[in-house]
User: Which sequence fits this backbone?
DNA sequence: GGGATGACCTAGA
DNA sequence: GTCTAGGCCATCC
């Protein structure tokens, strides 16, 4: 497994419950701002990783649950988010800006 | 080997 | 706010 993948999973695991982040934020944190597609692709393989990777806490830049179709059920992703106190409407996170967790800020090395 | 696809983002108009 | 173009790189055909 490439370090990039492992790094992605590691960052995703650091996302606190009730918070979400975006693929681009992770990509930027890893030093490849334009490799966001790779982050999404890494998520495609996240279910094979241990420990569990909370992929439901990763959405696109506008808070849309673009990856919900990759979960076992149709509304699994949404229900898990709601279980953590995040409101989801029309496959989109309500008050996304308030729930947003930016690794570039929260995990800032500087 | 080449071409297409994908849980995306940024920049410019 | 919209649209288009380019880029990232693993994986599949």
Assistant:
């Amino acid at each position: 497994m490439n370090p990039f993948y492992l790094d992605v999973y590691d960052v995703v695991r650091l996302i606190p419950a009730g918070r979400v982040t975006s693929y681009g934020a992770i990509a930027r944190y890893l030093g490849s701002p334009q490799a966001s597609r790779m982050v999404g692709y890494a998520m495609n393989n996240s279910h094979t990783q241990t420990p569990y990777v909370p992929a439901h806490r990763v959405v696109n830049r506008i808070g849309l649950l673009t990856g919900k179709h990759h979960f076992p059920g149709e509304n699994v992703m949404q229900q898990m988010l709601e279980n953590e106190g995040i409101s989801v409407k029309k496959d989109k996170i309500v008050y996304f800006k308030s729930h947003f967790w930016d690794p570039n800020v929260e995990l800032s090395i500087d």
Strands of chain A lie at 21-22, 58-59, 88-89, 92-93. Residues 22-24, 27-28, 33-44, 46, 55, 58-61, 65-70 of chain A lie near DNA strand B (CB under 10 Å from a C1').
